[in-house]
Specification:
heterotrimer, A mainly alpha, B mainly alpha, C mainly alpha, A: mainly alpha, flat, C: mainly alpha, rod-shaped
Chain lengths: 237, 226, 36
Amino acid sequence: MTARESAERALRRSGLWMAVGLLLVAGVYVRALVFTPQEATQGLAQKIFYIHAPSAWVAFLAFGIVGVCSALYLFLKDPRLDLFAASAAEVGTVFTTTVLVTGPIWGKTIWGAWWTWDARLTLTLFLYFIYLAYLVLRTAVEEPGRRARYSAVLGILGALLVPFIHVSVYLFRTLHPMPVVLRPGKPELPGSMLITLAFSFTVFTIFFFALLARRYAWARLVDARAQGEADHADASR
Amino acid sequence: MVSMLAQAWAIAAKDLLLEFRSRTAFLSALVFTALVLAIFNFARDPTAVSAVDLAPSILWITFSFAGVLTLSRAFSLEKENHAIDGLLLSPASRTALYLGKTAANLVFVGAVEAIALPLFALFFNVPLLDVLGPLVLVIALATVGFVTIGTLMSSMAVNTRFGELILLVLVLPFLVTPVSAAAEMTARIFAHRPFAELAPWLKLLAAYDITFSVICTLVFESTVEE
Amino acid sequence: MPMPPANGGFMVAAYVAAAVIYLSYAGWLYWRSRGR
C-alpha cells in the first residue's frame, strides 16, 4: 500500500472514531448535567469540573506526546514522528484553550475573580504559550526538514520547561498568597460524582486520540501528496 | 575535550573581536538598556510606590528583555556572506560552536549589565555597594539561564521569517524561572534578608541553569545541521 | 444547611463554551481533511 493510500484509509477510520468520540462527549454532558447530583456547598458551577479537569489532563498528555516524539525524531529522523508531534500539538492546543476558558468561568464562582494566578491555571497558561510558540515556529519555517528539526528542539525544551514553571509558580504562590474571597472546602466526591469524573476522563482521552488520529492522517496525506508531486516532477525531467 | 574548548574559545574570541572593532551592537544594546530604565521612571507613580519596592522588577524586566534582544546578534552576523557555512565546514565541532557563541553572548550581555547596574542604582536610588557580592551572583546565575536558552533559540530564529519576533515568542516562556527567581532573590538581597531565605530560589535557578545548559548543548547540533 | 450559591448560569456558559470549542475544531478538522 502506498503512503497515500495508507493515509487515506487512516482518514476514513479516524472519521468514524471522531463520531464515536463526539457521541461519548455528548454522553458525558448528559451524565454530568442530568444524572450527577449537585455538590452541596459550591452550587451547580462545580459541575464545570467534569469538563475542566479532563481537558487539563489531555492538554498535558498531548504535550507529553509532543515531547517524546520530538526526542525520538531527533534520534530516528523519521518524518512521521514530526507529523505526529505537530498533530498532537495542534489538538493539544484546542484542549488547552478549553481549560483556559472553563477555568476562569469556574474561578469566578469560587474566587470571586476571573483570574487569580492560581498555580494550576498559571501553569496551563504557560503551557499554552509553549504550544503557541511551537505552532508559530512551524508556520515560520518552510523547508520541511528544517521545520521538523526546529520543532523537535522546541518540543524537547518545552517539555523540560514545564516542571520548572510548575516549581516556580508554586514557590511564588506560597510566598505571595493571593486573597481568596470564598474558600471552598475540599469537597469529598461521593461515588456518583467519582463515576462521572472517571467516565469523563476516559471519554476525553478517547476523544483526544480520535482527533489526533484524524489530524495525523491528514498530515500524512498532505505529506504523501507533496512527495508524489516532487517525485512526478523529478520523473518527468 | 581540550580541543573542543580551544575551538569554543577561538569562536568566542572571534565574535568578541569583531564586536570590539565596530562596537555597534554593544553601544546600541547599552543605549537601549539605559532608555528602558529611564522610561520605567515614567511608568510608575513615585508617590504611590517607592522605588525600592519596584526596583527588583525594573531591574529584571530590563535585563532580561534587553538581554534577549541582543542575542540575535550572534547568529545574524553569520548570515553575512554565508559565514555560517565556513564555521560549519571548519573542524570546529557543533558543540564548540554553541559554547563559543554562548560564551561570547555571556561576555556581551554581562558587559551591558555591568554598565547598566550602576545606572540602575543611580536612577532609582538603590544602595548596592553593601550587597554587591550576592547581587552579582544572582545576576550571573540568571544571565546564564536566559543566555544559554536564548543563544540556542536565536540559532533557529535567525532562519525564520520575522526572526526577532519569533525569537521573543520562543524565549519568553523560558524566562519565567530565571526572572522570578532572580527578582525574588534581588528583593530579599535589597532588604538584607538572611541568606537562608534565598535558598529555595537559588537551588531552583542552579538546577535550571544546569539542566538547560546541558540540554541546549546537546540539541544545538540539530539547529545547524544541513 | 445553607443554600448553595445560584451559579447555574456559569455552569451553562462553561459547558456551552467547551462544546463550541470542541465542535468547531472537530468540524473544521473533519471538513478540511476530507481529501479527494
